[in-house]
Amino acid sequence: MKDLEKELERLSAELAKLQEQGKLKGYSLIGALAVSAHARPRATKDIDFLVSADREFFFKLFPELLKKKGYSLKVYRGEIDDPVNGLIRIYDKGDNTELADIIPVLWNWQDEIVEASEKIKLFGVSIPVARIEDLIVLKLKAGGPQDMIDATELLKAGKISKKLDMERLESLAKRAKVDKKLKSLLSK
Questions:
Q1: In 3D, which of 109, 107, 14, 128 has the Cα closest to residue 62?
Q2: Phi and psi of 127, rounded to 5°?
Q3: Phi-psi category of 49—alpha, beta or left, where left has phi over 0 and alpha has psi -120 to 50?
Q4: Sign of CA dihedral 20, 21, 22, 28
């Protein structure tokens, strides 16, 4: 976990710097670490960020900047119907394990997720984290078994903490085309 904490600090500092320089519009922690910030913590081996940036910058210049900072990475481009349409995967140089996935914003509703992120302190690092509603929608969009478990846990945590904005959740789910999945989740 220490390596993950160290990498979160290092990578979030790089993203913050690029945002300050105007190269990124913004970024938000998503995935298991973000789920753990809002709900019951769960194990994870990597970090996931949603990044808002010009597409050309994201797929061409951004990887080169990360390489110059010493990151080992691979750029993946997905198909238009993939839940994650392209990403930059960062690997540990020592043992080649996955450290982080950096996912580009492709839709306006994803940009709203980045813009609405809340600064939360994780491992001593103040970092923008996606809101509960937004994480639920992202998890429903991804649609895997662990994603559905995470969405359920986030829904429970949001109801308990009274931080769940149902209007926002339903609106975002509709625009992300996961409103039927949300309806099913809410009926359980």
A1: 14
A2: -140, 145
A3: beta
A4: negative
| Rounded Cα gap, residues 168 and 27, in angstroms | 20
Burial of 87 (0-12, 13-18, 19+ CB in 10 A): buried
What percent of the chain has a predicted confidence (pLDDT) above 70? 95
The dihedrals phi and psi of 43, each to the nearest 5 degrees, come to -70, 145
Domains along the chain? 2-186 (3.30.460)
| 3 state SS of 49 | strand
- What is the strand order of the sheet 98-104 is part of? 72-76, 87-91, 98-104, 47-52, 26-30, 125-129, 118-122
- What are the pLDDT digits (tens) for 104-119? 998 999 999 999 999 9
- Model's pTM, two decimal places? 0.93
Instruction: Give the C-alpha distances (Å, rounded to integers) separating 59 from 31, 64, 88, 96, 132.
Output: 21, 9, 8, 21, 28
Helix (H) or strand (E) holding 66: helix 62-68
